[in-house]
Amino acid sequence: MMLVAGFSGIGKTAVVNEVHKPIVRQRGYFIKGKYDLFQRNHKLEEYSHTLEQKVEERTQEITEKATQLESTLEKLYSTQAQLIQSEKMSGLGQLVARIAHEINNPINFIYGNLQPASEYVTSLIELNNLYQELYPQPLPEISEKSPILN
User: Fold this and answer.
1) Is 138 exposed, middle or buried (0-12, 13-18, 19+ CB in 10 A)?
2) DSSP state of 11
């Protein structure tokens, strides 16, 4: 077995052609080819295979990240919907609080003044009774203005 190797242009092909003739005459086997080309192609195949593996790994990583992003986006949309619902409920609560306040103001005013008004009316009735005792015959102007007294 003989292997011829070397740089380009140094006459390897001429050597191979000269060696080839006697081997063929003796009915030997002769395989000729470019071993350095084979080695380069073999390395290229290895690089190609490595590159394919890396591309596949990167594709898998990108797919996983895309899935994570989709999941995150769905969570974001869900959180956004919850936030909007929360804001709506907050606004509704504030509206109800304002309405209750507007209803309670007059009711509290009336309730807060019932006792003083009752005392005032009682005082007026007592004053009226005292007036009727002291002046059983009111003046005609008063009688016309007060039909209750008649």
Assistant:
1) middle
2) S
Helix (H, G, I), strand (E, B) or coil at 29: coil
Q: What is the pLDDT of residues 127-149, one digit of tens each?
A: 988 988 888 887 888 778 776 65
Model confidence over 54-80: pLDDT tens digits?
A: 999 999 999 999 999 999 999 999 999
* 3-state class (DSSP) for residue 101: helix
Q: Which two tokens stand for residue 141?
A: 């102007």
Distance CA 80, CA 121 (A): 60
pTM over 0.70, yes/no: no
Q: Is 27 left (phi over 0), alpha (psi -120 to 50) or beta?
A: left
Q: Which residues of 91-117 are buried (b: 16+ CB within 10 A; e: fewer)?
A: eeeeeeeeeeeeeeeeeeeeeeeeeee
